[in-house]
Amino acid sequence: MTRTKKTALAPGRRSKYALLVFWLVLIAAAGPLAIKLTEVQENDTLGALPATAEFTGAMQRAKESFPDSQKPLAVAVYVRQSGLTDADRAKAEADRVAFARYADGGQVPPPVPSEDGQALLLSFPVGGNAEQRAETMGHIKERLPVDTPAELSTALTGPAAGEDDVFEAFEGMDGALLLATAGTVALLLLITYRSPVLWLIPLVTVALANQLASAVVYLLAKHADLAVDFQSQSIMTVLVFGVGVDYALLLIARYREELHRHADRHAAMAVALRRSIGAIAASAATVALGLLCLLAADLPSTRGLGPVGAIGIAAAFLAMTTLLPAVLVIFGRWLFWPFVPRYSPEAVGLDVTAEHGVWRRIAGFVGRRPRAVWLGTAAALVALSFGIGNLSIGLPQDQTFTTEVGSITGQRMIEAHYPSGTVAPAEILASAGQADQVVAAARTVPGVAEVGEPETSPDGRWVRVAAVLVDRPDSDAALDTVERLRDAVHAVPGAQALVGGDTAYLIDEKRTVSRDDRTVAPLVLVVVFAVLVLLLRALVAPLLLLASVVLSYVAAMGAAGLILDAMGYPKLFVSVPLQTFLFLVALGVDYTIFLATRAREETARLGHRQGVLHALTVTGGVITSAGVVLAATFGALNVLPLVPTVQMAIIISVGVLLDTFLVRSLLVPALALNIGRHTWWPGKASSAAGRGVGGPVREPVPLA
User: What residue ranges are annotated as transmembrane (predicted)?
Assistant: First the structure.
């Protein structure tokens, strides 16, 4: 992009009002659409697997062959530790009659007693669509505690109850997340600018960007089959606020710097935008392209996050490079009150690092002993990485929520009195002609507690067989049992057997995520490296930056391992490592992009050593503020009541802070100083990059 084009982006005396009117019209159209985004959420994709998975094939066969039995089960459990009484059995029978009106098919089978005589189970499919089931489950929950004998414990569990618990947990969470995110950003901006007015401008601008992104996602979901769920919508909101405010901080800092050098605020904005838009565009491109790498994933929930997040990044970039400059220029210098930047002819050639005392001293520290600094920083990051040993992959289903919910309570009550796999048996679907052989093969598998009688499909082609597991469905032992069960029934000639069920789902999910990790993670690294090469026109610097963020990711996982273990959440949801890797690599590169582009600019006029130290000094404060804002916005995900979102919030927040305070502030500049001019090999910092209104710096950063 040429200088003329970059300058032309800046709002002029008339175009600033045209930009403002354009955005007002745009938001007036986008607002009503953004509100409807929740209407097009397809939260079923959160649990979907690719078509190639055996679980998906089994589910599709069951759906086609047993169309009347695909409704989720509700399971009512009744427990008395001293043994069931006649009054307890009468209560269960009365509920069976009452629940019949809610059961798909209008009938509820008789209660199933436990062998120890302390528990009863009522299990029935719940009819209707998702909204109707939500209303039905409310009626069932109201009925269950009615006329309950003293000391009889009751709970509602099963897939239908679990679905309802998720629905209730997230009811109103969209607004809570938005308020938490906006409140966090507002507080940090107020602290950063120490102005009663200025903080409102980037906050309102980023809020409008979020409205635009939500409207675009709604239209694409409505008319172009874009998959969106509550997870991708929540992460999009956090991304827009976090990244958008980062861009605002960078632009406003450069604008403030130029206001000291220009009497005309329009000219100051033109220079500020020209000098910062390259880094902002590279940052946006890195994050957006990194997110689009998720399209290569097989897991639908991971794949759907890519385009939704990329739309949010594009909206933030557009708002912060068009609307924000226009508003800043319209309102003028008084926005910065009480610290108004005044024009001074002497400021044209003055050293701006004089205004950054803390970072001037940090730059001096890095410049004195760069090798010791980068070695010490790298050693600290490596030491933190050992905390990974506290983490493991595989989040048990009863630990999915941050608080106890009814479906989890019921599941634990069942496990205490029935075989652990009673509520979620493995489901075998096979050819009807080989039903006996399939049942016989299943009964020989260690870890299978009970194999039910075959149920024949209405067309007579297929049978369905339930296999109750000895162990809880999400345990490693159950996973091994289903693997053996699959091998056994697959070996029956002509059976065309498929094994589904909750445990089979976990097996196929783990395989899918493992494949996605091997495919997407290297792709993200390649894309980020390519962006850095194009931006910096070098090979060594991009390699250094990429290596630094990978080390930062490993250290973040280790540090988060210590925190999550202390919180009681050390078992990671299977998709968390890949998603956090993407965000930390893409977002971590952001800060080094801001530093590296300024270093390249300053190196052209100050020389490599002074240019790197000058860039560290003048960008240190704004990039640190940006990192704190981004970490805090991701921390807002902690308001959501799911453990996977809490794990993601902790890992990303810790990683961003490590990038901000260690990698970008110490490791990268110290490495660049130690390597010297070869950092920019095979190119060199272009002198054109450093020319501009600012002129030569009279007082460069001291080396010691």
Answer: 175-193, 200-221, 233-255, 276-297, 309-336, 372-393, 519-536, 543-564, 576-599, 611-634, 646-667
